[in-house]
Amino acid sequence: RDLLLLLLPRYQEQGKAYVHVAFGCTGGKHRSVFMAEQIASALRTAGFSPTLLHRNLASRAADLLEGQKL
Predict the structure, then answer these.
(1) Please, is 51 exposed, middle or buried when counting C-beta atoms within 10 Å of its C-beta (0-12, 13-18, 19+)?
(2) For residue 23, what pLDDT is reported?
(3) Which residue has the higher pLDDT, 49 or 30?
(4) Rounded mean pLDDT of 21-28?
(5) Is pLDDT of 61 > 90?
(6) Alpha-carbon span 52 to 41, nearest angstrom
(7) How far apart are the C-alpha atoms of 53 and 29, rounded to whole Å?
(8) Contacts of 44 (CB under 8 A, 6+ apart)
(9) At how many degrees (to 10) do helices 31-45 and 2-13 cross?
(10) Burial letters 1-14, b for 16+ CB under 10 A, else e
(11) How far, in Å, CA of 13 to CA of 16, rounded?
């Protein structure tokens, strides 16, 4: 969060209109979702307008693999 809040104004000063930030975790439904939501909230509080996309939230493939022994 602190790093983004430091860097984003500098990106804007350089004329950059967007930046992509990605989080990942096994399953993509718990830690990464939580972190993405927390960062988006912090950015909104700081006056930014983040777009939040949970790319794999609807995917069940990782959940199916979790129950299998490898």
Answers:
(1) exposed
(2) 86
(3) 49
(4) 78
(5) no
(6) 10
(7) 12
(8) 50
(9) 50
(10) eeebeeebeeeeee
(11) 7
